[in-house]
Specification:
The structure is a homodimer of 344-residue chains. Chain A is of the alpha/beta class and 344 residues long. Chain A has helices at 20-34, 61-64, 68-82, 119-127, 138-141, 161-164, 187-197, 212-223, 236-244, 261-268, 281-284, 298-306, 313-323, 326-343; strands at 2-6, 38-44, 52-57, 88-91, 108-111, 132-135, 150-154, 175-178, 201-204, 228-230, 248-250, 273-276, 291-294.
Chain lengths: 344, 344
């Protein structure tokens, strides 16, 4: 197939550090090329890909400080002009390409990468409800399930986990909280649970600016304790080590996360997950087999910590390497593309 | 004619205070209705108009904190769906409607309201060079005059100046600087010139956040002087009084302002203007007749202050009331609309 992949321009593809969406677009693009497709990637300058690269901005916008509206509009215009060269257009940009109406000469499908539980997103989807969409989990659709939308499929993210993460042995025996220190990730609850369970906890992650008040009031007072180690933000190597040596990965989410990438990464190091039964989590892992999904309740979480030794670490890694592989993701999208082309 | 006016959604039409673009859209819309056209105004909730109002967002975005991309996309989609109801579409939104390509069933013309001297705007216009544009002054086009663009006309802004501003008598005898206190407006130069000319100066206007350093270093030290009165930001009544009692309106611009609305307003109170000969100013007023446009040079500006008594205040007011009237502006746009409809 001749496939256009349309990425946001904020960071290059692949991203040097953050940039969840751009990393997924990169993994998908590389895999589709490997599978013999002719792929054109619309992305910022500085991107590296085995597909044909259409540089829609000379530099990534985080670097140039460029106006996102201006450059994404230019990207969409370039896409529209070249649309007859493709069999399918796969956009990761949300609304902007939808303004083109019927000007594309190939079907256009959009992966929704964010949460859909805000009134504005609801209104937007209701207004543009004729565009085919892909969800990144079934749970992501829940807040808008009463709307008549054209969901083509759920396709779970895939990453090259085998290369990115080594199997760890859990020899540190501690719990690991590796995530943003935001209320919706529950770092305060995690620390309290660890102490009640009588376990050490290693806390790692950035404090987002908008959460500095929360951090000062709710988290910082808990950090001054011999069994709590706060180590700030980690790079990839650091995450690998801290997660791999943990007995359990404890991030008790307090929101309906549409796709919990961090949980997949922890499992790739062999470390079982403890979290709350909400959002995409019940789709991403099996309770009792790859960790424990419980109510957001201190006692239930403490109880889960005690049961960690019953989980087979090899099975955790094996499971995510297979289920969230680039190949699985690409297969999912190939089916979506084929169906939309057939309907066109 | 059946005309669509498409306004930004940040503030209502007309705006309660700021919002240059929305005020112009309001004036134009009211005048076109008065002239017998069937006008539909796409604008935020809270707008008041004698045209048919299509509320593209329930509230103005400055009030709701809504995402501008989301709501302007919804506005453009509503416009596209209704486009067969119009003979002409007049947009004040820049790029977003251009993404619709050929999906509009009426010609679409865009008034460019801002400066065009930044590299990003250049790139944007080059990419979308098939869309007809209206400039708000000939000077505005200058930075992109080498590009092959479809300029349909220059149409100067019109305002209901007769109702908004009373004739003042200049009895205060001072110079007035009424503008943002930003380097490109030259407040420091204005104060120095007033002192050299031996005249009192009244300084009024907000200090934009991004100019607070400039204000502290370059302007504040000059304010502590018996002949300098700094009175902060003014409402409409205050502007009327401060400008009307001034002997001269001294805002020595240090940039190529595409349309100097404040100068027109000062002239409407009868007060002659002193500024630098650049940007749109030579198009907006006549040197020696409505004030003085000189080089950005202290001595030249001081010299102009001394010549203020030679200017006829009645003539200043009469001139702008006629030249920048709602009727003149509407006539200009009617010609543009007719020409584009004929070409379509």
């Amino acid at each position: 197939m001749r496939i256009a992949q349309v990425a946001p321009l904020y960071v290059p593809v692949p991203p040097p550090e953050y940039g969840g969406t751009e990393r997924i677009v990169h993994t998908l693009t590389q895999e589709l090329v490997k599978r013999g497709h002719e792929v054109t990637l619309f992305a910022s300058g500085g991107s590296k890909t085995s597909a044909e690269l259409e540089r829609s901005s000379p530099k990534p916008l985080w670097e140039s400080g460029g106006n996102p509206d201006t450059w994404h509009a230019i990207e969409v215009e370039q896409l529209a002009r070249r649309s007859s060269e493709f069999d399918i257009i796969h956009s990761h940009l949300d609304v902007l390409p939808w303004l083109g109406g019927d000007r594309y000469e190939a079907p256009l499908v959009t992966t929704m990468h964010g949460r859909l539980d805000q009134p504005e997103q609801r209104k937007l989807l209701a207004e543009f409800n004729h565009w085919p969409l892909v969800s990144i989990s079934d749970a992501q659709r829940k807040p808008v399930e009463d709307l008549d939308l054209k969901w083509a499929a759920t396709v779970y993210h895939g990453l090259d986990l085998a290369r990115m993460y080594q199997a760890g042995d859990g020899s540190g025996g501690y719990l690991a909280f590796v995530s943003r220190l935001s209320p919706e990730k529950g770092p305060d609850l995690a620390i309290k649970v660890a102490q009640k369970a009588g376990m050490k906890i290693v806390v790692a992650g950035p404090v987002p600016e908008q959460n500095s008040d929360y951090f000062e009031k709710e988290v910082k007072p808990l950090l001054d304790h011999p069994d709590v180690e706060f180590i700030g933000e980690l790079d990839d190597a650091g995450k690998n080590e801290v997660m791999g040596k943990a007995a359990g990965f404890l991030v008790p989410i307090q929101w309906d996360e549409p796709f919990g990438l961090a949980f997949i990464e922890a499992l790739a190091t062999g470390t079982p997950v403890i979290s709350c039964r909400r959002g995409s989590l019940p789709e991403l892992l099996e309770d009792g087999r790859h960790g424990f999904l419980v109510d957001s309740d201190e006692d239930a979480l403490v109880d889960a910590c005690r049961k960690l030794p019953s989980i087979d670490r090899d099975e955790c890694r094996k499971y995510v390497l297979d289920r969230f592989s680039p190949g699985r993701m690409a297969e999912g999208y190939e089916l979506v593309y084929q169906r939309l082309i057939a309907q066109d």
